[in-house]
Design goal:
Blueprint lengths: L2 H23 L3 H4 L6 H23 L4 H29 L5 H21 L2 H5 L6 H25 L19
Helix pairs in contact: 1-3, 1-7, 3-4, 3-7, 4-5, 5-7
């Protein structure tokens, strides 16, 4: 398989998905933060697309020089895992969903951890007797991450926000006449 072509398609696809996400949320006060909630969730979904696109660019720079693509994938593994955890926390805080945050974290974190592990220890792929090169294993993991990112965007956009409870404070006293 031509790694450069594969990662070129992944980068272009994720930058396109990022642009579509920005268009989809631009008029959504609940996702842009204009109402004080949800802006972080929208950013964290964006981050999932940016991480996949950026790491794909790293993979195209010099695929024959492992240190370059491995550095990009290691960084992406850490940032992606943190981003998924933060997204799950925000999703739980801003919606009534109880299961989806666990699914996001339960699938996303292990995937990003595997990306990190393969990047810092590509010999592990050979030790497992897998017939794929480490950069190809990263490509498979990245494909699953892209699918998960699209699902994240869907659920964040389509899950109703938790109703904000009105605070029951006494009105301020009237000014003295």
């Amino acid at each position: 398989m031509d790694q450069s072509a594969f990662y070129g398609v992944v980068a272009a696809t994720n930058f396109t998905l990022l642009g579509l996400w920005w268009v989809a949320i631009k008029d959504r006060d609940d996702l842009t933060g204009k109402d004080g909630h949800g802006g972080q969730m929208a950013y964290l979904v964006s981050l999932q697309f940016v991480v996949a696109a950026a790491v794909s660019l790293f993979a195209q720079v010099a695929p024959q020089i492992g240190a370059i693509w491995r550095t990009g994938f290691a960084f992406a593994g850490v940032v992606g895992a943190i981003g998924v955890v933060m997204l799950a926390i925000q999703f739980r805080a801003n919606t009534d969903s109880k299961v989806m945050p666990w699914i996001l974290a339960g699938l996303g974190v292990p995937l990003y951890v595997l990306v990190f592990v393969v990047a810092i220890s590509p010999a592990l792929v050979d030790a497992l007797n897998i017939t794929l090169a480490p950069i190809e294993v990263e490509g498979l993991l990245l494909t699953i991450i892209v699918i998960l990112g699209v699902q994240e965007a869907w659920f964040v956009a389509m899950t109703p926000r938790r109703a904000v409870e009105a605070t029951h404070q006494a009105p301020p006293p009237a000014p003295a006449a």
